[in-house]
Amino acid sequence: MAPWTGLWGGRAGGDAYRGTPVVVKMENPNWSISEISPEDDDEDFLVGAGAAGARRKGGRGKNAKQITWVLLLKAHRAAGCLASLASAAVALGAAARRRVADGRTDADAGAGAESPVLRSRFYAFIKAFLVLSMLLLAVELAAHFNGWNLAASALALPIIGVESLYGSWLRLRAAYLAPLLQFLTDACVVLFLIQSADRLIQCLGCFYINLKRIKPKLKSSALPDAEDPDAGYYPMVLVQIPMCNEKEVYQQSIAAVCNLDWPRSNFLVQVLDDSDDPTTQSLIRDEVAKWQQNGARILYRHRVLRDGYKAGNLKSAMGCSYVKDYEFVAIFDADFQPNPDFLKRSVPHFKDNDELGLVQARWSFVNKDENLLTRLQNINLCFHFEVEQQVNGVFLNFFGFNGTAGVWRIKALEDSGGWMERTTVEDMDIAVRAHLHGWKFIFLNDVECQCELPESYEAYRKQQHRWHSGPMQLFRLCLPDIIKSKISVWKKANLIFLFFLLRKLILPFYSFTLFCIILPMTMFVPEAELPDWVVCYIPALMSLLNILPSPKSFPFIIPYLLFENTMSVTKFNAMISGLFQLGSAYEWVVTKKSGRSSEGDLIALAVLPKELRHQRTGSAPNLDAMLKDQSGLEKDARKKKKHNRIYKKELALSLLLLTAAARSLLTKQGIHFYFLLFQGISFLLVGLDLIGEQVE
User: Fold this and answer.
1) Which of 310-314, 620-624, 651-655 has the weakest average pLDDT?
2) Which residues are catalytic?
3) Is the pTM of this model over 0.85?
């Protein structure tokens, strides 16, 4: 046997020892081990079994050492992952403990979007189900540990003592409760399948649009002549920026609108300020004055009485005498930043198309990766624009106006009755009335307008309450007008059954009833069955379809599914509030903005050389003053206290679902258990306000 000359060994003759080396590839985090067989295995055979066996023995020794090191490295990495998970769990527990110690609940939020009476009744309803589920769980646990297996014999055998009560409960459950619960289950499953089929058809329509590359086309060329740029299609456009106490974002919207690439003489900007804060009014008025000094055609309007909220603000602005000189009106909310070519890409669609009343652009989001809440919102809104709006625009020439980032023909607004303050969804209201008068809509999926998503759960919750109570108000008011209108029967059916009933009423109803009430109850009444494909497979498929327009969000598919079911509580509550005109269904709550997009714009402009700051257009604001104002706003924001809150309905539902999950273990229902467990945890995280912006 050749003697060792070192760690890796060798022969005395100087020839390198030829064992079976191991190559450890370090370039990727998944350590991989590759064994390379010696090139001269045949030579080993010829040399002799003894020498070859010695070499193989030495090779095994070296391989074992290297494998040990690799395993140690992998163990170290696993320990690091466990440590990070433990740290996250500790931080989560600490945040939950602070939330409970603080004691602030959704009832202390001040002027919210919910009726106190409706909120208390709804909460009492959920608490009743929670108490009932906990009592039933106690009974089932007692029956399980005492061996009362009476499911088959409870209807036939006489039983004495406590077991008789349990037997009576089984008879009552099988004879009366199970049929009723099964009927409700079947009804909700039918609604669920109808809504899923509608979503699948919309996705197929979007696939067809992308496959055929269908896009709205111009009726006639509206591009300017290369030799005479001023000879293009430049009609008179009025640009409106409604805002209310939004001092975090007013600068970005005014700057973006004033920088639109359109002849100065052919568009006018109206800043419609409904702020009741004198400081905010002064800041906005000064900003408008700066742009006026730089040559922009911009006006500041302020109403003393905020009648009608945003609809009243727009209606008041359209009453100005100079509006008659303009043919189109573009609307941007305070946090929206249109690109300079926005009007050049949207207004030309109106040329030689007298039936066109609205051109709507899609939204993009500057803070979509800020936290988990904004990522989940991005999934929802990407599907809304990419699928719902685009499909309805291509095949029906109708969709709900999004309230901003759109251009209206003023004649279409006037023909439809103008802005009305009768609901909190004035954008959907004017779109439905314009559709009933025969006006057509176009959606431009390739024209984007940047905006901001709500970063806190409180702000998002109030926004969703308004978005889901308003359509029910509108449905009650415009149903007679839809029936009496002269549009085709198909369009009437689309408005009533698809646009309102299926997507605005049935969707939140079955989402809450089926997954938050019926599913937990079937765990305590096992005679009523909910199939696995309803609990798992179809919801997973629908979530996959929803996430396709934003493929980068695929890792969040499971949190998205759970969060949508969690939000069904707020949406169901809002739908009932709007349908039956309960409480503050007509109250408008402005969505809070953080102003992150304006911070980025200011910093990006501030780092430019002074001679380049004015190259965007002929006029630009005083950036030094803007940065000073921004720093002042940041100080004010620090002084203003924010709080995370406890949401009692979500917490009660989390306990209900976790109780049902514990009960499902007795009947060994695997999919149901995991769904109830993770859905209960999702409700718990949302109830403790741990999903959005966290205030230290």
Assistant:
1) 620-624
2) 274, 427
3) no
